[in-house]
Amino acid sequence: MSRRVLEHLEVADCLQLLGSVSLGRVVYTEKALPAIRPVNHVLDGDAVVIRSHLDGGLATAVGSGRGMVVAYEADDIDPVEQLGWSVVVTGVAHLVADSREVARFEILLRPWVDIAMDCVIRVEPRLVTGYRLVDPGVVSRR
């Protein structure tokens, strides 16, 4: 197997790929240390929306009212073929306060874990980056 080439993705391609999967990882600061949690998501325009529980570290940190800088990463990489992609959205996370919006996301975004997910968090992107691992002998799928 030949070595793979790393291809930079445009923002629109990143968002399209991010919308094609439902699981990723949110990276945030908890007690001055980095924390990473797997969560499911939906896209709302270019914003990433996740649900959390009010007692969780992420909701507590984001709930301060000022918002919090977070990163959200999702990928789809085949470990056998060593092909795939990774997208990172870096932005400011805020609790969604509008009750109609919360109700809409409660329908669209079902938690995977058996725990009350009683808050909705929206990550407004400031930076969207992505890369695709491609076979150098095959033309890019742009």
UniProtKB/TrEMBL annotation:
InterPro entries: Pyridox_Oxase-rel, Split_barrel_FMN-bd. SUPFAM superfamilies: FMN-binding split barrel (SSF50475). Pfam families: Pyridox_ox_2. This is Pyridoxamine 5'-phosphate oxidase. It comes from Phytohabitans suffuscus.
